[in-house]
């Protein structure tokens, strides 16, 4: 059972209160009408699906019902940290890991 | 060339009995790899071994290797609930799974290996009026595709499975079911071993404990694979058949797939006397159950809601599945559970497989079977072998090419069939 810290409720709660909402930081194409089928398909369906450290979106369905981001290891299930929407994770070197994939 | 395989026959059983069964051949060799293969199949599970077998058997490609990072059949092939059926709604899926079911029906003879395919029938329960409408639609579609199926009411279900709870006062009362008599179960390990033995006899090299760590590329084409155990091995074509780890293999070649990997759980009880002679599945309350020949109740749960590569699974999912099974079979409430495990399944957005060429030339993928791959094992291998041998897409695999995620022509089996995979 995961215990997940909701950055809005500011409390660690059990996983049954939450829903996984897929890979985080996928940028919606700015002009969908101008998108090729190739690019639109990639935006909609293609995912990193990393075995290891990945930034994910979760929603606190049985709590504040807000979406937020979780930096989690998909092999060990260790949660590195959670952070509100709009923020980007930064690793120890202060650089942004590659989490801006997909989209435009 | 290699010595011919001993046949499994009544005569040989008697003959080997005279020496206490100590002189049977090994099932397969443990060869050193060649420098170059025509085709390398990554993944030594049922699908990968079947692919290699049909490459050699049907297409005459014998310079083939199967690379397995662990041991043969140790992934999802050894972790599923062994259910086989073909009662899918849409033509594309129905044809594919029926192709597999027909191969299952002759598989033990074909391989000279008892895969214990037991056509004990599969019930897919309906608990709501909409379930029953969907079941009627699906069975009608099945019959138009030449697939056997019947719609049963609650009494019909009770006649087949007397111990099931058809009380109207249940929380989700059973209103009826679809019934596919040709469905059933098979012995999962035997499927992997049978294909491995068959492929080996035809000259395929099975290389175990050999993980793929990258690809050798030239001019944007795959020319070989890098492995942790044997270094680089050259090849003309690569077929990746690694289920939950398909995205990992794709990353080695530098692209993404429309997949998310989730743990899917199952558990078995201690062995008990025969009480359940068929397969019972319920999508509505979500649980499925059969009894193995050993006597243990084999119970399948759902996938974890979140992505994961840990082969264990989360507890709320077990609780959910147990609640569902006890709703159907209150009499099982005191049966102790013995073992629990999870396999990593690669789910696609439309819950249908992904088969054919990838965006990198010479690299082919057979993945995305999600939660229902075991039943397709022979068909998957047969069809994918044709893709690899002919450098083209098999007609049955056409609807399952990766292009569907760009054209939008998804095969929406997940929602429309209303059946657990």
Number of strands of chain A: 6
Broad shape of chain B:
globular
Q: Rounded to an integer, what's the Rg of chain A over CA atoms? A: 15 Å
Q: Give the termini distance of chain A in whole angstroms.
A: 36 Å
Mean pLDDT of chain B: 94
Largest interface, counted by CB within 8 Å of the partner chain's CB: A-B, 28 and 25 residues
| N-to-C CA distance of chain B | 43 Å
Q: What string gives the helices and strands of chain B in order?
A: HEHEEHHEHEHEEHEEEEHEEEEHEEEHHH
Multimerization state: heterodimer
Low-pLDDT segments of chain B: none
Largest sheet of chain A: 4 strands, antiparallel
* Main β sheet profile of chain B: 8 strands, mixed
Order of helices and strands of chain A: EEEHEEE
State the shape of chain A: globular
**What would the average pLDDT of chain A be, to the nearest integer?**
88
Radius of gyration of chain B: 21 Å
Structural topology:
The complex is a heterodimer of chains A (104) and B (421).
Chain A: E1 3-6, E2 11-14, E3 19-23, H1 37-45, E4 53-59, E5 67-73, E6 79-84
Chain B: H1 10-17, E1 36-42, H2 46-57, E2 64-67, E3 83-84, H3 91-105, H4 107-111, E4 122-126, H5 129-144, E5 150-153, H6 154-160, E6 176-180, E7 184-185, H7 188-201, E8 205-207, E9 212-218, E10 221-227, E11 231-240, H8 246-252, E12 260-269, E13 279-282, E14 287-291, E15 297-303, H9 315-328, E16 337-347, E17 354-357, E18 363-367, H10 377-390, H11 404-407, H12 413-417
Helix pairs in contact in B: 2-7, 2-10, 3-10
């Amino acid at each position: 059972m995961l215990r997940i810290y909701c950055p809005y409720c500011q409390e660690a709660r059990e996983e049954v209160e939450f829903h996984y909402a897929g890979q985080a930081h996928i940028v919606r194409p700015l002009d969908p009408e101008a998108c090729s089928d190739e690019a639109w398909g990639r935006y909609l369906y293609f995912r990193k699906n990393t075995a290891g450290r990945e930034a994910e979106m979760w929603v606190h369905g049985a709590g504040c019902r807000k979406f937020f981001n979780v930096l989690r290891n998909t092999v060990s299930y260790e949660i590195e940290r959670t952070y509100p929407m709009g923020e980007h994770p930064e690793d120890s070197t202060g650089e942004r890991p590659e989490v801006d994939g997909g989209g435009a | 060339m290699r010595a011919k395989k001993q046949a499994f026959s009544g005569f040989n059983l008697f003959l080997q009995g005279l020496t206490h069964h100590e002189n049977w051949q090994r099932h397969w060799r443990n060869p050193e790899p060649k420098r170059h293969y025509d085709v390398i199949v990554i993944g030594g599970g049922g699908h990968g071994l079947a692919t290699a077998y049909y490459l050699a058997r049907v297409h005459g490609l014998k310079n083939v290797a199967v690379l397995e990072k662990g041991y043969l059949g140790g992934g999802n092939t050894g972790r599923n609930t062994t259910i086989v059926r073909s009662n899918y709604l849409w033509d594309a899926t129905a044809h594919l799974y029926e192709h597999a079911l027909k191969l299952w029906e002759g598989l033990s003879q074909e391989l000279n290996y008892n895969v214990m395919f037991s056509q004990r029938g599969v019930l897919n329960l309906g608990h709501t009026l909409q379930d029953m409408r969907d079941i009627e639609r699906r069975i009608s579609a099945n019959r138009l595709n030449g697939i056997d199926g019947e719609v049963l009411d609650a009494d019909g279900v009770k006649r087949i499975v007397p111990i099931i709870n058809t009380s109207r006062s249940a929380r989700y009362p059973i209103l009826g079911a679809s019934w596919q008599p040709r469905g059933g179960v098979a012995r999962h390990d035997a499927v992997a071993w049978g294909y491995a033995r068959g492929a080996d006899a035809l000259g395929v090299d099975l290389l175990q404990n050999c993980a793929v760590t990258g690809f050798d590329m030239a001019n944007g084409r795959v020319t070989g694979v890098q492995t942790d155990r044997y270094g680089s091995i050259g090849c003309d074509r690569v077929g990746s058949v690694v289920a939950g780890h398909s995205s990992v293999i794709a990353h080695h070649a530098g692209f993404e797939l429309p997949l998310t990997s989730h743990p899917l759980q199952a558990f078995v009880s201690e062995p008990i006397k025969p009480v359940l002679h068929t397969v019972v599945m319920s999508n509505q309350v979500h649980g499925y159950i059969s009894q193995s020949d050993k006597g243990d109740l084999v119970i399948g749960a759902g996938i974890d809601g979140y992505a994961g590569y840990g082969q264990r699974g989360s507890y709320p999912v077990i609780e959910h599945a147990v609640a569902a099974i006890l709703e159907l079979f209150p009499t099982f409430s005191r049966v102790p559970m013995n073992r629990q495990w999870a396999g990593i399944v690669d789910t696609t957005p439309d819950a249908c497989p992904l088969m054919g060429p990838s965006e990198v030339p010479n690299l082919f993928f057979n993945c995305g079977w999600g939660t229902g791959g075991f039943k397709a094992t022979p068909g998957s291998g047969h069809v994918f072998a044709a893709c690899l041998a002919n450098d083209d897409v098999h007609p049955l695999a056409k609807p399952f090419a990766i292009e569907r995620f760009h054209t939008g022509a998804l095969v929406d089996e997940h929602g429309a069939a209303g059946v657990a995979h």
